[in-house]
């Protein structure tokens, strides 16, 4: 407003007051009949008006000349600013990224990548497009490298004078050289400290019946391997316990070790005791931690998870997840009677301190899950606490066993649906999860989240997702089955007379199922558990009847076998029709009878819009690792995965890809 008034005063001469006074005097002269004087005053007014008009036009012309000069100077300054701007600038078409204009700094930055005529930004930045500008962003995602320098691109959309809509919008981009800044950032990230903890898995087996001199030689052999590994990666190694080491190195070496899949794990097998036992190690790393304390905590979590998965592997823990490497070796049994006794007494104490017990296995419960659940009910009855088994009576793989158990007086009202269990649960309820340690695989995840106290009894290796903060975790990947673990628990805290015959047969059926009639994953403790169950009344012929299938299931199984094909020493069956999970698992077992086949996989539709895969192994191929790559789990010799909303054909392609990645 003030500027407008100044211009107005500049344009209009200050004669308005004079004209007003002359008009007043002329009017007064007419009133007093002084006509000559009035005529003279009127002529003066007329002359003054003409003068004012002439002066006003002259001033307007002068103002126009002034404004034109100012505008010229502003345009000239603007043009000079763009041309001489210290950053590279480019104006380009939004539709094809063709460069319309660029300053000298831009073409100096490009060098030989583009010329000043008919050039495109894609010549400088491959796959460049203005999509990020159209999305309302002012910063290009990521950095680009041009002639050895790193640039950050800023930009905005501007409108042109073109009438063609396709050319109506242009993009203008500014290139900021951030090479030194990004190099500092990378150096900071690469030089961050990554702590690790190394544990010798089988130190007791290596030292067993050996002299002190031999033991020292074994330790020296292990440390030589570790020192060489640390020297190759410029790491620091310190032993802080008999079988534990702290290793510290920079993050820059982590990528290389991941690509090589940590060969130190396999190299450690070269250290052998005189009795023929090969050394094995587990390593936990803490990556991307906020500080050294958190990094060591991550490393401890990683190595404990590695040990719970059977050892002989590397687990990397970061803020979000776990990464697994190795773990292909055959698991060596390390359980002791002492641990089983401690776990049995702890579980019994938890049961006594609870108002009620809820037992839950995995979805589509098999004989091992049901047998272990029955074992928990037996222990609860011994402790005088009511127990219920949470299971879907329609969707399970144990219908014959369930029918037999439910006909027993003690189990008439034991089995309940997840919805009923949710209504029964209170603050003092103990939920015992058997035959799985993964929250997404339990019969009802909402029930698990609703219970404050959870105990886990399982024989599967712990995966990246596992039930955390459990009041008790009896997870032994060396055991053949969850029923074997529950049998050991009952041996410690119950009398033989406390166990019903049907309970013994249910637990023996679980062991027979997971060991494939004692042919795989069978150790000394497995036979001890089976002989104990046989001694207290389990009838093997009755157990055998639980594995019988009807004619339709038998025909379906052989149809699955007809669809099998050999692929890299694996037998893979891909039936087109929806299959029962039990039948598919039985077919996978039978495929292992083919000569030269070390593993088998059945991929089939589930009848609900998805598909599943059931895998078995009798060789070195670890099907748990294979199924974990696809989001499933299990153990070394038996594993499975569920594919929701994925066809069997696509699932099969994923299985083939996982096999290729595993075998290399």
What does it look like?
The chain is an alpha/beta fold and 664 residues long. 45% of the residues lie in helices and 19% in strands. It is built from 25 helices and 23 strands. The strands form four sheets. A six-stranded mixed β-sheet has the order 7-8-6-9-10-11. A six-stranded parallel β-sheet has the order 14-13-12-15-16-17. It has a six-stranded mixed β-sheet with strand order 18-19-20-21-23-22, with helices on both faces. Strand 12, helix 14 (367-383) and strand 13 form a beta-alpha-beta unit. Helix 14 packs parallel to helix 18 and helix 24 (623-629) packs across helix 25 (648-663). It is elongated and about 150 Å long. It starts with a helix and ends with a helix. Residues 1-13 have low confidence and may be disordered.
Q: Structural class from helices and strands? A: alpha/beta
Strand content: 15-25%
According to DSSP, the number of beta strands is: 23
User: Roughly what is the average pLDDT, rounded to an integer?
Assistant: 86
Gyration radius from CA atoms, angstroms: 42 Å
How many helices? The count is 25
Give the CA-based shape: elongated
Give helix % range: 40-55%
Distance between the termini: 78 Å
| Biggest sheet descriptor | 6 strands, mixed
Low-pLDDT sequence parts = 1-13
Q: Within the largest sheet, what's the order of strands?
A: 7-8-6-9-10-11
TL;DR of this structure?
Helices cover 45% and strands 19% of the residues.
């Amino acid at each position: 407003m003030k500027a407008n008034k100044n211009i107005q005063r500049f344009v209009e001469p200050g004669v308005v007051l004079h004209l007003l006074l002359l008009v007043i005097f002329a009017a007064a002269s007419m009133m007093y009949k002084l006509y000559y004087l009035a005529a003279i005053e009127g002529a003066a007014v007329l002359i003054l008006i003409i003068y004012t008009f002439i002066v006003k036009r002259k001033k307007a012309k002068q103002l126009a000349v002034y404004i034109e000069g100012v505008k010229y100077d502003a345009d000239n300054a603007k043009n000079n600013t763009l041309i001489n701007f210290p950053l590279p600038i480019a104006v380009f078409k939004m539709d094809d990224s063709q460069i319309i204009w660029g300053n000298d700094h831009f073409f100096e930055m490009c060098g030989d990548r583009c010329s000043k005529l008919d050039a495109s930004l894609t010549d400088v930045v491959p796959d460049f497009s203005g999509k990020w500008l159209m999305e309302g962003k002012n910063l290009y995602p990521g950095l680009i490298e041009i002639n050895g320098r790193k640039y950050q691109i800023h930009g905005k959309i501007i409108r042109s004078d073109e009438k063609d809509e396709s050319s109506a919008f242009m993009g203008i981009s500014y290139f900021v050289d951030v090479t030194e800044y990004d190099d500092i950032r990378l150096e900071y990230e690469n030089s961050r400290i990554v702590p690790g903890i190394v544990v010798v898995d089988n130190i007791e087996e290596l030292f067993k019946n050996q002299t002190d001199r031999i033991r020292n030689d074994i330790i020296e052999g292990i440390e030589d391997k570790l020192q060489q590994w640390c020297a190759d990666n410029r790491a620091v190694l310190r032993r802080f316990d008999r079988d534990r080491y702290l290793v510290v190195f920079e993050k820059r070496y982590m990528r290389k070790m991941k690509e090589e899949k940590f060969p130190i794990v396999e190299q450690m097998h070269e250290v052998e005791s005189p009795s023929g036992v090969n050394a094995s190690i587990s390593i936990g790393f803490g990556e991307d931690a906020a500080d050294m304390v958190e990094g060591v905590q991550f490393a401890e979590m990683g190595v404990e998870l590695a040990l719970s998965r059977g050892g002989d592997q590397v687990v990397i823990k970061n803020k979000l997840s776990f990464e697994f490497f190795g773990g292909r070796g055959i698991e060596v049994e390390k359980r002791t009677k002492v641990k089983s006794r401690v776990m049995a007494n702890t579980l019994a104490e938890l049961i006594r301190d609870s108002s009620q017990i809820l037992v839950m296995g995995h979805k589509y419960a098999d004989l091992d899950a049901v047998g272990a659940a029955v074992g928990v009910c037996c222990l609860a009855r011994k402790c005088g606490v009511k127990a219920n088994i949470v299971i879907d009576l329609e969707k399970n793989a144990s219908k014959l066993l369930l029918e037999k158990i439910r006909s027993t007086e003690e189990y008439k009202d034991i089995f309940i649906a997840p919805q009923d269990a949710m209504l029964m649960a209170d603050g003092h309820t103990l939920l015992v999860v058997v035959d799985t340690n993964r929250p997404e695989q339990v019969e009802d995840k909402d029930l698990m989240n609703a219970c404050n106290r959870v105990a886990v009894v399982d024989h599967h290796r712990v995966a990246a997702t596992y039930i955390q903060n459990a009041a008790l975790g009896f997870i032994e990947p060396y055991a053949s089955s969850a029923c074997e673990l529950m049998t050991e628990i009952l041996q410690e805290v119950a009398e033989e007379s406390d166990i019903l015959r049907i309970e013994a047969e249910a637990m023996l059926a679980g062991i027979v199922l997971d060991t494939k009639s004692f042919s795989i994953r069978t150790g000394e403790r497995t036979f001890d558990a089976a002989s104990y169950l046989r001694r207290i009344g389990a009838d093997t012929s009755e157990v055998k009847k639980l594995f019988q299938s009807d004619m339709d299931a038998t025909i379906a199984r052989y149809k699955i076998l007809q669809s099998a094909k050999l692929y890299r020493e694996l037998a893979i069956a891909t039936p087109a029709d929806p299959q029962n999970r039990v039948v598919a698992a039985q077919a996978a077992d039978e495929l292992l009878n083919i000569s030269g086949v070390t593993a088998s996989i059945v991929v089939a539709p589930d009848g609900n819009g998805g598909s599943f895969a059931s895998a078995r192994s009798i060789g070195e191929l670890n099907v748990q690792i294979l199924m974990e790559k696809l989001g499933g789990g299990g153990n070394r010799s038996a594993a499975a995965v569920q594919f929701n909303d994925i066809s069997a054909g696509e699932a099969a392609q994923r299985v083939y890809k996982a096999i290729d990645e595993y075998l290399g």
